[in-house]
Automatic annotation (TrEMBL):
Keywords: ATP-binding, Ligase, Nucleotide-binding. Its EC number is 6.3.4.15. It comes from Haloplanus salinus. Residues 1-183 form the BPL/LPL catalytic domain. This is Biotin--[acetyl-CoA-carboxylase] ligase. One of its GO terms (biological process) is regulation of DNA-templated transcription. Signal peptide: none annotated. The chain holds residues 69 to 310 of 310 of the full protein.
Length: 242
């Protein structure tokens, strides 16, 4: 089942010293008909984040996008995003840095909650099947504090092993080793959001309450004054320190 989910190893790995955006490169490859490609760049000139934000991409970071055509319904796409966040968080821990995940896919430093990494998933779906899916990760690995905004940090700043190649390899290996049925359980192990008071800006309005669980394919369950709400997408803020 891992193969159908597309978590197995990519056929092709492309490395570029500099690209506008690895997600854009992967998208062009998808439009040309490619599949199973991992695109890695040393730096990006037009890195993109979630919610139309830009992603600061100085040299020393890991910028990588995986193109897949999994035989899954479009609604399953969030599983890949969560799997990528788990892979990055685990790679951070292996590098000696105490990383946690903020729903859905921000990788943060445990106590300061400064951002180490993010995941941007893009997809084109047909009615019942994903046509192509791109999972892009950006990680501040060998980046100095001066190159980062105040809300961010890096593996190097946190005193971890900042070898980019090793880091990238660990992310890819963990992503491939994950059993899709275990993604939610693995995500919960790293989650900083569960049990916390949160404020989530969703396309349908603000949801506030205690985050109690994550459920397939990656939705956050929030206990509000009006009962439980299941949130599928949005920007999540932790309201109080852990
Ligand atoms: C976020 O937290 O907003 C997600 C950031 C995702 C950034 C990565 S870097 C590699 C890939 N290419 C991009 O342009 N964006 C993603």
């Amino acid at each position: 089942d891992a193969i159908a989910y597309g978590l197995d190893a990519p056929d092709v790995v492309e490395y570029h010293d500099r690209l506008p955006s690895t997600n854009d490169r992967a998208r062009n490859l998808a439009v040309e008909g490619a599949t199973d490609v991992l695109v890695v760049a040393g730096t990006q000139t037009g890195g993109r984040g979630r919610l139309d934000r830009t992603w600061n991409s100085p040299p020393g970071g890991v910028y990588a996008s995986l193109l897949r055509r999994p035989d899954r319904p479009p609604a399953h796409a969030p599983v890949y995003t969560l799997a990528a966040a788990v892979a990055v968080a685990r790679a951070c821990r292996e590098a000696g840095v105490d990383a946690v995940i903020k729903w859905p896919n921000d990788v943060l430093m445990a106590e300061s909650e400064r951002k180490l990494a993010g995941v941007l998933t893009e997809m084109e779906g047909e009615a019942d099947r994903i046509s192509w899916l791109i999972v892009g990760v950006g990680v501040n690995v060998d980046v100095s504090g001066g190159e980062l905004p105040a809300t961010a940090t890096s593996v190097r700043v946190e005193g971890g092993d900042a070898d980019r190649r090793r880091f990238c390899q660990r992310v890819v290996e963990t992503f491939h080793a994950l059993d899709p049925d275990d993604v939610l359980a693995a995500w919960r192990e790293y989650a900083a959001t569960l049990g916390r008071e949160v404020r989530v800006e969703t396309p349908g309005g603000v949801v506030e309450g205690e985050a109690v669980d994550v459920e397939f394919p990656g939705a956050l369950v929030v206990r509000t004054d009006d009962g439980e709400r299941t949130v599928h997408a949005g920007d999540c803020e932790h309201l109080r320190p852990a």
